[in-house]
Amino acid sequence: MSFPAGAVDGATRPIDVTIFNDGIDELNETFDLGFGTVTGAATASGTHEVTIVDDDEAEIVVTELGGTTEVTEGGAGDSYTVVLGSEPAADVTINIAFDATQLIVNGDTDGTTSLTFTPGTWNVIQTVNVAAVDDTLVEANPHTSLIAQTVSSTDPVYSTFNPADVLVSITENDIVNIALLGTSTSINETAGPLSLTTRLEIISNGTPGGTLTTPLTAQVVLTEGTAVQGTDYSIGTVNFTFPAGTPHNATQPVEVGIINDRLLEPSETFTVSLTLVSGQGTVSGSNEVTITDDEVGVFSFNLASDSTSEAVGTYNRFARLTITGSGDGTTFRIQDAASVVLTDTPGTAATPADYTLSTTVLNVPANAGSPLDMSFDAAIVSDLVFEPDETFTIGFGAITGNGALSSTGTHTVTIVDDETVNFVLSPASISVAESAGTHTSTVTMTVTGTGTGTASIQSAFAIPVTYTE
Asked: Tell me, what's the pLDDT at 396?
């Protein structure tokens, strides 16, 4: 440094010092600037202390791309990077330990590998490539495995560091599933327990096949539809297990109790499905079960034919519902209300002149027992007409109700006439002169009976006339 000739009082001159920007994490450092011997009569005095503030930070930077490390068995791998934050005084080795049954790290398969940073390569980013071991174990999807990282170094700073570990998420390609076979099943209530089939499905390395490594237990789930648990069906198999070592496509039966009752009812449904109780895997499938009834109900008449006087007024008889089948219980019953229409067919009797069917529908209440007798009426017309006995027939029409309901037979009614007819000659005796030529006697017809209307006869009468000498 020098001041040129002619420099005036108060003149200044700079002193330039080169500061070296190293990569070493170190304490702030100082040095002093001063003067040496000045030539001539001048003197120099004073010092200037300079502090070099360090801008390096010792650290081990572990960066997961996208913030996570995710790999797939038999599929895509992933990677993360490691770099130091400052220049070390000695080599720094990152020791990497991992589960070799789950991961392959930088191509290594024995569970350990390492990265080394030297004072000359401390800032060169190193990549760690991670892949999943394509095993045949059925594990959680996804499941995880830890890469543990430690440091070895004689550098006094880095030797104390503990770098971040990396938790790897592994997508599983080995799958185990218990499938309930069939989507719908029909069974008669007399058939006894229902047996359905479950099948163990294993996919190893993306291909069907293999064996189960740990037991898998599922529970049978019964869901009511129109069928009611405890009334129409019961729990059979609760839990079942496929033990370790079970091969792909092995099957197991599950049973559901079917209750055979004495109830006439429609076909009813419930659903069977599965839920996982323990083990690593899944369950699938549901089966809708239809229970068909074995009871049948038949409407019939208690009598095939009958007769009644026309003076009876109201004719009353019975029809019957009879339920047959099998099952537990003391009485056959009908679950839901039902009805049957009564029809009438005139024969020689006419409606409404001779009769009117008063009851046109027979109603059966829900839960009625069998046999069930139901009365029906017909109004019989009582007239004063002398006529032959007349008939009409009662039958069954449309049936409303659930379950197997049918009808059979007819009921024929004969209306017996209660009128009588008497023919009388009057007077009882008479004298006629032989010269009279012609004699006329009078015959009087008398109709007697009960009823309304004018006494009469329905059909003409031919009455023979005799004489006795």
From this structure: 98
Distance CA 47, CA 44 (A): 10
Query: What pLDDT is attached to residue 48?
Result: 61
Strands 261-264 and 328-334, sheet pairing? parallel
Furthest CA-CA distance within the chain? 218
Q: What's the pLDDT band for 210 if we cut at 50, 70, 90? A: confident
- Residues 351-371: what's their mean pLDDT? 97
Residue 267 amino acid letter: S
pLDDT at 316: 98
Q: Is the pLDDT of residue 452 over 90?
A: no
Sheet arrangement for strand 411-416: 305-309, 411-416, 390-400, 338-346, 361-364
Residue pair 117/163 in contact by the 8 Å Cβ criterion: no
Are 154 and 104 within 8 A, CB to CB? no
SS (H, E, C) 357-424: ECCCEEEECCCCECCEEEEEEEEECCEEEECCCEEEEEEEEEEECCCEEEECCCEEEEEECCCEEEEE
Burial of 309 (0-12, 13-18, 19+ CB in 10 A): middle
Both tokens assigned to 281: 């895997």
Q: How far is CA 30 from CA 34, 52, 177, 310, 382, in A?
A: 13, 6, 71, 141, 142
How far apart are alpha carbons 445 and 450 in whole angstroms?
A: 17
Cα distance between residue 177 and residue 201, in whole Å = 5
Q: CB of 58 within 8 A of CB of 84?
A: yes
pLDDT at residue 384 is higher than 50? yes
By mean pLDDT, which of 125-139, 294-308, 329-343, 360-374 is the weakest? 125-139
Answer whether 105's CB lies under 8 Å from 78's CB.
no
How many residues are recorded in the chain? 469
Mean pLDDT score of the chain, rounded to an integer? 90
Q: 344 CB contacts (<8 Å, ≥6 apart)? A: 351, 355, 357, 378, 392, 393, 394, 395
R_g of the chain computed on alpha carbons:
56
Question: pTM above 0.70?
Answer: no
Cα(243)–Cα(264) distance, rounded to whole angstroms? 43
Contacts 24+ apart (CB under 8 A), 59-68: 59/84, 59/85, 59/86, 59/161, 60/84, 60/85, 60/92, 60/94, 60/151, 60/158, 60/161, 60/163, 60/164, 61/85, 62/149, 62/163, 62/164, 62/166, 64/166, 68/169
pLDDT digits (tens, 9 = 90+) for 17-72: 665 555 565 545 565 666 667 777 777 766 766 555 554 578 999 999 999 999 99
Q: How many CB atoms lie within 10 A of CB 80?
A: 19
